Predict the 3D structure of the following.
Amino acid sequence: MKHALIAHAALAFSLMAGGAALAAEKTPEPPQMTPEKQKICEEAEQRYQKIYGHPSASLKDKGIVVVKMYKYTFCPPQVRVKPGTTVRWVNVDKRTSHSVWFKEAGKEESERIFPDPEEKVEMKFDLPPGEYPYLCGPHWKTEGMVGKVIVDPKAP
Ligand SMILES: [Cu+2]
């Protein structure tokens, strides 16, 4: 079993328990959607469709929002989701591994996942409205690979 599936209850607990106490270790803001990042994310979506056979947005009906990891970028770098949404991270790179780490919240880094359709990181955001920044363990410092989940009841 290669799935780097993180227990939902455990995530909710530690995200809430972390918070203010670790405010000193602030996660940088996710990158702006420059034309370069836009291009990377368009490519990431094409690769996703080739691997999985459907557009990533088509899982929204099931309450799943997909974030692709590609060329040191979370695509999209920022997602706004309704409470209760599951965010699924998949790696559509060629050979680099990536992780999902809610470091600021005091959470442990996920497993480092490879470009393999069997691997993913998934978390259900049964959490209070707010911003949940995260990093890629191996690349946040050197490549600025950071992202953010915003829980918002008014999300589309
Ligand atoms: Cu990475």
